Input
Amino acid sequence: MKFQPDRSEAQTISGYGPGWITVDGEKITHSVILGSKGTREPWACARFEDLTAEHFAQLALLEAELVIFGSGKRNRFPPPAWLAPLMAHRMGLETMDTAAACRTYNILASEGRTVVVALLLESE
Output
């Protein structure tokens, strides 16, 4: 039986480590928003403590059925009030550490889901 590798039309995260990810061969060292439909834009926050409600309001403007928030080296949750714009747009949010968010994004994007991942890439 011949096996074929899975191919995804979505951009994928091919590697990650402390303070960086690789997307389709490009190394990114700043916090970033990626979408399965091609979104790739900087996310203006370097630390979890820098996040504000406006960061999550920005995510609500993207067309996605689900937003994955990679909260850095460990799993940390934003205040519930910050999620109101996402709920108003009927978008779900899952929070996990950045490494888990990378893996989860790849799985959902490869399934053809309309998903966005917001990754907090903290420098060492």
User: Anything to note?
Assistant: The chain has one domain: 13-119. The chain has three helices and eight strands. Residues 98-110 form the longest helix (13 residues). Residues 35 and 116 are 4 Å apart (CA to CA).
